Amino acid sequence: ELQKEGDVTYLWCSVNGVLSRPKLVILDNTVHIFSMEGSAQVDVPVPKFLAGVSGSSAQGGAIAPMTGTIEKVLVKAGDTVQKGDPLMVMIAMKMEHTIRAPKAGVIKKVFFKEGSQANRHAALIEMEEEEGAGE
């Protein structure tokens, strides 16, 4: 069972019949576990549906940071963009979020139109694969 005390998260667990309460620190996709017996880290793999749209992959693209409504779509398939160019504007939690290009490239597909609801981590834009992309 996870328990939060202030800004600290503890994992109440039983290991070989011995109760333990290690402290958890989660950074990016790694969980760091600290206890009196020592420490360990566990890497959590990126889900395949996110790996295909992350900025570091060959495909690239943009994903929704949270669930929200697409207010403006600023690009269409075939458009050339530079890293950081605005792609669309999303309204989530009563705030405007500008979704920007993770890299320079050509827009392959826009998955949402204005007024659509997008779930958290949904692929919003797909970018063309670069020729000879081997970063």
Automatic annotation (TrEMBL):
Domain Lipoyl-binding residues, every copy: 51-128
Listed SUPFAM superfamilies: Single hybrid motif (SSF51230)
Gene3D superfamilies in UniProt: 2.40.50.100
Sequence intervals crossing the membrane: none
Keywords: Biotin
One Pfam family linked to the record: Biotin_lipoyl
Protein name: Lipoyl-binding domain-containing protein
Organism: Cirrhinus mrigala
